[in-house]
Amino acid sequence: MNGTATQEQIDEVVARLEEAGASAHVTPGKQATVIGAIGERELIAALPLEGYPGVEQVLPILKPYKLVSREISPDPTVIQARGRRIGDGYFGFIAGPCTVETHEQTLTTARAVAAAGCTMLRGGAFKPRTSPYTFQGLGVEGLRILAEAREETGLPLVTELMDARDVEPVVETADVIQIGARNMSNFSLLAEVGKAPKPVLLKRGPSASVEELLMAAEYVVREGNAEVILCERGIRTFETSTRFTLDIGAIPVLKQETHLPVIVDPSHAAGRRELVLPLARAAVAAGADGIIVEVHPEPEHALCDAAQQIPVAEFPHFADEINALASLMGKVIG
Ligand code: PEP
Ligand code: MN
Questions:
Q1: Cβ–Cβ under 8 Å, residues 44 and 17
Q2: Does any ligand 1 atom lie closer than 6 A to the CB of residue 181?
């Protein structure tokens, strides 16, 4: 719709699309309002929409992803949680333990990341572990500890939802619901968080293409939840010197393809703590809207991902480096 289109004109087009059996997603923008119509291509193409007052142009979206594509919403999406922002110049700096292990470990880490200027606290209560014989997370008790850490630090919480049976406690406690790499293609879980009233942090599957990641995001947005943050966390390649291969190229590609914010997890990609800072720097320099990193008071005793967690004592230096580079890139810490 052109910049001067009235609400009545927008409503008229939406009504016409719905009559034709299409769903209409209205995105008000700086220059124009975009109405995304999803339905039978031929039926929509047959509507004389160009003749409607207020309509500027009608364009087919050729990409398989529609609602998450740049074409439907040229303005970048900004995700907000408890006043913290990610996207469109706001840099999300998310840090915390891999896993909530104890009250003390979580609170110590939360205080350290808050003091270093991070914008959100991460921590898993429900953990996707490769081995069924390793620590699986504290579950609901872990959520309670995270809530206490938020209470004390004011930091919004990012925590993973693994199973649709845990939707209630996780959605209630989380400020941002993480969908882990292993669940990126769990389409029923994606649809479930698509109905949740909280933003979703969607991690790229280790063997998923950029297009598959965008299609997974489309599952969430299609259900009505437009607040999705995409996360590149490394993919599986023939290379074994890092835990996964951080796909730096995916960052500018995603930024081109989608209006959603794109962040990077250098911790799981690196697998080794000495590689986390250089990978994080590369992510910021490539235009990421944020990073999510693992921090632990005593990584050598961590129950999960011990080798890659940054010790609390070294975190101020890590944060200084990231904050400086983010401002060099013209970003404001969200
Ligand atoms: C995590 O961030 O806690 C995690 C398990 O990462 P991923 O899903 O990317 O493996
Ligand atoms: Mn981890």
A1: yes
A2: yes
Report how far residue 238's alpha carbon sits from residue 245's, in angstroms, rounded to the nearest whole number.
9
The C-alpha angle with vertex 305 and arms to 95 and 109, in degrees rounded to 5, equals 35
Q: For ligand 1, is residue 180 a contact (CB within 6 Å)?
A: yes
CB 138 within 8 A of CB 147: no
Separation CA 170–CA 185 (nearest Å): 19
Structure tokens at 98: 């891999």
Give the span between the Cα atoms of 196 and 203, in whole angstroms.
Answer: 17
Averages of pLDDT over runs of 10 residues in the chain (334 residues) are 94 95 88 89 90 94 93 92 98 98 98 98 96 95 98 98 97 98 98 98 98 98 96 98 98 98 98 98 98 98 97 98 98 97
**Distance between CA atoms of residues 156 and 121, nearest Å:** 6
Report how far residue 22's alpha carbon sits from residue 16's, in angstroms, rounded to the nearest whole number: 9
294 C-alpha to center of ligand 2: Å?
Answer: 7
Residue 91 CA to ligand 1 center (angstroms) comes to 20
Closest ligand 1 atom number to CA of residue 181 = 8
Do residues 33 and 10 lie in contact, with contact meaning Cβ atoms separated by under 8 Å? yes
Cα 87 to ligand 2 centroid, rounded to whole Å: 24
Residue with tokens 């199973």, as numbered in its chain:
163
C-alpha to C-alpha distance for 275 and 193, rounded to whole angstroms: 32
Residue among 250, 260, 269 at smallest CA distance from 217: 260
pTM score: 0.95
In this structure, how many other beta carbons lie within 10 angstroms of the beta carbon of residue 147? 15
